[in-house]
């Protein structure tokens, strides 16, 4: 900005008073004030348009970012982790050669090769529950006082 001190302003005012004269000075100052007001309004309008352009550019960036996120969100329904894992496992299995069943050594008996696998061992039987004698049997062994005979 223009750097004008009070001394410079005083010199300009004295020169304007001498050159323009006291009769025309108020009209000239009013006109200068109107011009300064117009210049300020133009500067303010330019500044607001510049800030609006910046906001629009920022909005464009935000809109682009939003579009990227929304396109990523549209891919979520097609995301199936189980199918992806299944496909990868099948691909690994297809790439790996099939494993051959183990061949028994020369010491293994031939009957062991043809025999079906043994069933799993059954769990041990549960111990029989000890039951109390029926109430009539217990009552016969007692006397009238409730003591055993």
Keywords:
mainly alpha; 149 residues
Question: Topology, pairings included?
Answer:
Layout: H1 6-20, H2 25-74, H3 81-95, H4 110-114, H5 135-140
Structure report:
The structure is a single chain. The protein has a domain of 91 residues. It is mainly alpha-helical. The model has no long low-confidence stretch (mean pLDDT 76). The longest helix is centred in the first third of the chain and has 50 residues. The protein is built from 5 helices and no strands.
- Count of DSSP strands: 0
- Shape field: rod-shaped
Q: How large is the count of helical segments? A: 5
The proportion of strand residues reads: under 5%
Main sheet specs: none
Multimeric state: single chain
* C-alpha termini separation: 127 Å
Rg, rounded, reads 53 Å
Low-confidence stretches: none
Helix and strand run = HHHHH
Mean pLDDT: 76
In terms of structural class, how would the helical and strand content be classed?
mainly alpha
The residue fraction in helices comes out at 55-70%
């Amino acid at each position: 900005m223009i750097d004008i001190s009070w001394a410079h302003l005083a010199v300009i005012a004295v020169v304007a008073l001498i050159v323009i004269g006291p009769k025309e000075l108020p009209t000239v100052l009013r006109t200068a004030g109107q011009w300064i007001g117009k210049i300020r309004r133009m500067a303010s309008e330019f500044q607001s348009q510049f800030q609006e352009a910046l906001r629009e550019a920022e909005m464009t960036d935000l809109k682009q970012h939003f579009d990227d996120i929304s396109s990523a969100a549209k891919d979520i329904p097609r995301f199936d982790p189980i199918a992806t894992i299944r496909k990868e496992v099948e691909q690994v299995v297809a790439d790996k050669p099939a494993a051959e069943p183990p061949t028994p050594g020369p010491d293994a008996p031939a009957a062991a090769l043809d025999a079906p696998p043994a069933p799993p061992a059954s769990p041990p039987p549960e111990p029989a529950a000890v039951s109390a004698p029926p109430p009539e049997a217990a009552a016969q062994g007692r006397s009238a006082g409730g003591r055993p005979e």
